[in-house]
Specification:
This protein is mainly alpha-helical and 135 residues long. It contains 6 helices and no strands. The longest helix has 25 residues. It is globular and about 75 Å long.
Length: 135
Amino acid sequence: MQALQKRLKIFAAAGFVAAAFAPFAAQAADVGAEITNAATHAGLAAQSADIAGVQMHLHHTLNCLVGPNGKGFDATQLNPCKNNGNGAIPDTADAVKKEALQTAAAVAAAGIAATNITMAQADAKQTASMLQALK
């Protein structure tokens, strides 16, 4: 009888631990969604009619790529990937893909820094193309 009670206590404890961590499992990273969202915003940036629109959407792109703890993240801008994970770069395990995402982030950052709309749109278009290739 004691052995049965001991097993029941172990199962109850295991169930409690599983229930406690269930909310974290539901928020597992979705790198594909992060890349798709980043690509969408890079495309929107490339189509924007003014420099402010290009830069705004490139900020959204960069936020999706680097995540809230990443270099270049701007908390004053929208993070369309906040429910998908911690950013495509930190959430990606594949080293080759991570490097490609870092390159795309650098191009997006160059577009944000650009003061000429033609150059900013070109960076946005290149970023979108790079991200489309990674989907």
